[in-house]
Amino acid sequence: MRVKRRTRDAAVYQSALEKGLPPLAAHVLACRLSGGANGLEKIIRPRLQYIPHPERLKDAERAARRIAAAVAGGERIGIATDYDTDGVTSHAVIYRALTEYFGVPATRVDSFIGHRMQDGYGVSDRLAARILAQSPQPSLVITADCGSSDEPRLARLKQAGIDGVVTDHHVLPPDGPPLSAYAVVNPAQTGCSYPDDTIAGCMVAWLLMSLVRAQLVAGGYLPPDAPKLIDVLDYVGLGTVADCVGIDTAVNRAVVGAGLQLMNRSSRPCWRAIRTLTEQEDTPLSADFLGFQLAPRINARSRLSDPYAALRFLLAKTDREALEYLLMLEQDNQARRQIERTMVEAAKEEAARQAAMGRVSLVVYLADGHSGVQGIVASRLAEAFGRPAVVLCPALEPAQLTGSARGVPGLHVRDALQRAADAHPGLFIKFGGHRGAPGLTLSAEKLPLLQTSVEAAVRNWLDDEAVGPVVFTDGALPPAAISRETFLELEQLQPFGREFDPPVFDGGFRVESLRVVGADGVHLAMELSNAGSVHKAIWFRALDAADSPMPVAEGDRIRCVYRLSLNTFRGVTRLQLLIRFAARDAAWNGPPLLDNGA
Question: What does DSSP say about strands 163-167 and 183-185: parallel, antiparallel, or unpaired?
Answer without folding.
Answer: parallel
